[in-house]
Structure formats: structure tokens, C-alpha cells
Write a structure and sequence with these properties.
Helices cover about 70% and strands about 0% of the residues. The protein is built from twelve helices and no strands. α8 runs antiparallel to α9 (about 150-165). The longest helix is centred in the first third of the chain and has 26 residues, at about 65-90. The relative contact order is 0.13.
């Protein structure tokens, strides 16, 4: 038995519950909150620097400590959302009367992707802050790490290589995002489907790749202004300040 529309349709309420919880968690935008606390409510990170409510802008506009708090909290909220999604979908096998461990494992992973995607949406369009948030890089990275550590290693390696060469965070983020779907397909197809006693079905490989593609496109589109500045050679580099 493999993943299919008929099986997934039986879990519709799990999709809805996971999506709502993850979106509300994602809407807790740390960059906005930390900046407001540090400046005693006088400034909004969305009106500072690049205008993005994310780690990089906090680092440039507010400081290192607020930036560290931002990146840690943005990652944690996605990890929590993913764990909740996995927990909710862990009951899918029972509801569907499935004793197939492979199918039940795939459903849990689907729950993780659903929660992760909606957490990213919440981060970028937070209901608590006028639907104006960040670009979702940190939350996306947390999702990748929570779902598949192998793909995460590929993404981090790509990010670091591009950043070391360019010193531009947006260039590294865009490149890593563009390669997320290919990395996901390659890793899951080779190690989770082709290998002897492969734990997952081809349907899962394709669905996980589709989820990765959705996230990749979303992150790249959110960086359209950065892409324009990169093409014009105007994007700022992250460099050590001279004493």
C-alpha cells in the first residue's frame, strides 16, 4: 500500500489542524518582537535597513545578540511546529486501520512537511503583525533539518560554500533554495527507494520532492528584490568590521 489521494483524503482534518497550528506558531515573528524590546517600542525592524523582518536585517540594523535570539527562536518555532505535525499524523495509521509501518512512517513525514510549509507561510505573512514578515530562510532550514538531516547537510554545505566565496547571505540562500528540490529527490530516490529494503515508496519520493519545490519557489520569490540587487551588483556583503 502506497500513499494516494484516497488515503490522504481520509486525513483531511489532520492537514487542517497541523496547518493552522503551524501557521499561528510561524506568525510569532521574533525579529519584530526583539527589535521592539531592544528599542523600547520605538522602532520596527520592517522600517529599518532592508525592511525584512528576519535574521540578516536584525544583524545589520540592531546587533549581534538580537540577531542570535532571532535565529534561535525562528528555528525553534519551526521545529516545534514540525514535531506537532508529526504527532498529529502519527494517529493516521490507526484511523486508516493501517498496519503498514512504511505507509505510517510516510504519513508522519507528510505531516512534518505540511506543518513546516505553513510555519514558513506564517513567518512570512504573520497574522499578528499585519501579514508582513520575513523571507523564511531560517524557518525553512529548521524544517529541512527536522525532516531529513542528509538533505540538510547538502543545503548547509551549499550555503557555506557560496557565502565564503561571495560574502553575500542572499546569494547563498537563493542558491541553497534552488538546489533544495534536486537534493531532496536525489537523496530520497537513491537512499530511500533504490537501496535494498528501501523504507519508502516512489510516491513518497515524488511528494517530498514536490514539497521541497514549493518551498524553494516560495523562498526564491521572496528574494526577488535581492535578486535584482545581485544582478546590479548592489547587494551588500557581510564583512568583519574594522576596529
Amino acid at each position: 500500500m502506497e500513499l494516494g489521494i484516497d488515503i490522504l483524503s481520509g486525513c483531511w482534518w489532520m492537514f487542517l489542524l497541523s496547518a493552522v497550528i503551524a501557521y499561528l506558531l510561524g506568525s510569532i515573528n521574533t525579529a519584530v518582537m526583539v527589535t521592539s524590546i531592544v528599542t523600547k517600542g520605538k522602532k520596527d525592524i520592517r522600517n529599518m535597513g532592508s525592511g525584512n523582518a528576519g535574521f540578516t536585517n536584525v544583524l545589520r540594523s540592531v546587533g549581534k545578540v538580537p540577531a542570535i535570539i532571532t535565529i534561535v527562536c525562528d528555528a525553534l518555532k519551526c521545529v516545534v511546529a514540525v514535531l506537532i505535525g508529526a504527532f498529529i499524523f502519527s494517529f493516521a495509521g490507526t484511523i486508516l486501520n493501517s498496519s503498514n509501518e512504511i505507509l505510517n512512517g510516510e504519513l508522519v513525514l507528510i505531516g512534518k512537511y505540511v506543518s513546516g510549509i505553513f510555519c514558513i507561510l506564517g513567518h512570512s505573512y504573520p497574522v499578528y503583525f499585519g501579514f508582513k514578515g520575513g523571507k523564511g530562510i531560517v524557518t525553512a532550514a529548521a524544517l529541512i533539518a527536522s525532516v531529513d538531516w542528509r538533505v540538510f547537510i547538502c543545503i548547509i554545505a551549499t550555503f557555506l560554500i557560496v557565502f565564503i566565496i561571495t560574502k553575500i547571505i542572499s546569494a547563498a540562500s537563493i542558491t541553497a533554495a534552488a538546489l533544495y528540490a534536486p537534493f531532496t529527490f536525489g537523496v530520497t530516490f537513491v537512499f530511500d527507494y533504490l537501496m535494498p529494503k528501501a523504507p519508502y515508496s516512489l510516491t513518497y519520493v515524488l511528494m517530498s520532492t514536490a514539497a521541497a519545490l514549493i518551498i524553494s519557489i516560495f523562498v526564491i520569490v521572496k528574494h526577488k528584490a535581492n535578486i535584482g540587487r545581485l544582478l546590479r551588483g548592489e547587494e551588500k556583503k557581510i564583512t568583519a568590521k574594522k576596529k
